[in-house]
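Job type: complex structure
Entries:
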Amino acid sequence: MRRSRAFIPTIKEAPSDATLASHKFLVRGGFINTQGAGLYNFLPLGKIVLEKIRAIVKEELDQAGCLEVQLSFVTPIGLWERSGRSNSMGKEMLRIKDRHDNEFVLSPTNEEAMVELVKNRVTSYKDLPLNLYQINTKFRDEARPRYGLLRGREFLMKDGYSFHSSQEDMIREFELMEATYKKIFTRLGLDFRVVQADSGAIGGEGSKEFHVLANSGEDTLVICEACDYGANIETIFDEEEVQALNENSYEELQLKKLDKRCSCGGNLSFKKGIEVGHIFQLGTKYSQALEAYFNDENGRAKPFEMATFGIGVSRLIAAVIEQNHDENGCKWTKETAPFAVNILLSNVKDKAQVALGEELYEKLKALRVEVMLDDTKERFGFKMKDAELIGFTYTVIIGKELENGLVQIYDRKTTQNSSVRVDEIYAKLVELLKS
RNA sequence: CGGGGUGUAGCUCAGUAUGGUUAGAGUACCUGGUUUGGGACCAGGGGGCCGAAGGUUCGAGUCCUUUCACCCCGACCA
C-alpha cells in the first residue's frame, strides 16, 4: 500500500478521555475512532489487525475440529424468556422493537441460540461430540463502558459451544480447548497466564480464564513464580480483600500471601491481568432448561453435557498494545502487525531515493510481503514519528546515506537503527521476515 | 444505577463570574515560496446555527427551563 493513497488519519494529540496506552495509540494511529460511548469504528489499519487476529483464532479452532457458524445478531425476545435470562441479564441486554412492535435483543452471548440450533437436529449419541463457534458482534449495554476497546459495548467475540454425551467427553474437549487457546495466544505473541476462575455452582476446575499480563488489567491474579499455577483472586479471597487488592493496598495481605504458598513450594505473587479468554464447563444447565436432549446407547433421552469457550477478539487488539508499546506508539507482535515493512522515503524529491524505494516496494509485494511505501511529501522526522506511532515491524529508511550506498533498517521492537548496503537490503529483509 | 463534571473549528482548549462591535488561540486543512535525518519556517486562505428545543431581553456562547450526548469516581460486568 502506498501511504499517499492510504486512509490512515494519524493525529498528534490523544483524545482527552483516553487514559490507557492502547486507547491513545489506537486512536492516534488511525486504527479506530469513537462512534459513541463504547462504540468504535475500525478504520483500514484497525480492520487489518482485527482480521489478522480473527484468522489466527479461526485457523487454530478449525485445526482442533471446531466448526464455524454465524448466528443472527438480532434475536427474538422469546429466546431469552425461555431461559430466564431476559430477567437475569436485565439492562445489559439492549432491546429493540420492529415495525410490528415485536421485541428483539442484540445478542450479548449465544448459549440459548446455539442450544436451539442443535436441539432436535442432533438427536443421537452417534453425532456427538460437536463443537460449534462463531466470531461475531456482541452487544452488552454496560453501565459504564471505558478503556477504549478493552470495555466497549459493541465488540467482536469468538464464542464456542460444545455438546457431549458424557461429562468425561466434555472434560476432554475442555482440556483440548485449553491447549488450543494457549496455542492461539502464543501465536499472537502474548505473555499470558491461564488461571482458575470463579466457577460458581459447577465447582472444581470447571472455569478457567486466560489473562494477558499488563498493569492496566482490571483483574488481579495470584500466580506462582515457579510453576504455571495461577488464580483470579476472586477465587481465593473474600470480597473485602479483593477490594483491597484492586486498590493496590497489598501490604496487609502479604501475610496471607505467605500462608498461601503454592503447592509446588514456589512463591506466589500478585499480577494484573486483562481477561482475553474464558472456558467454562456448563454441564446440563442450558440443555435442561431448554429441553435439549439426545438419545444414548440405550435409546434413553439425556440432556447434552455442554461447555462454552470465549475469546475477546477486539479486546485482544488493545491487549497486544497494552503489553507492547513505548512512549512513541505501538509495537505490534509479529502476527498482529498491520504491515511488516514500511519503506520510508526521506525526501521524495530525490529521484535516486524514489527509484530504490519503488524497486524494493515492488519486489516485496511480489513476495506477498505486507509492505507500506511512505511516498508522502512529509519531512523525515514527521514520517519517523508516524512509523513509530503506527508500529511497523521494520522501517527501511532510504535517505541521505544512500549517497554512500547505505540504507537503514529501524527495528520497532528494539528501536535500533542498523545500516545495510543497498545491494543487500532485499536479502536482509527476506531473512528478517523469515525469523 | 448513585455521586461529580463537560458540551464553542477536524482535534486540544480560552471566552460564560458581571449579557453588548464581525466569537478566539494552538494544531490540523488549502495556496504559494523556502526547507528536507526526528512531528520545520514565512506569507495568504477556507472552516462555527457556541450540543438541541423553548424562554427572558432592545440585545444571549454568556441568564432561566427542558432535553440529548459525552466524560470521571463508585456499584455492576456469563
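Summary: Chain A has two domains: 31-71+107-326, 341-434. Chain A has 13 helices and 23 strands.
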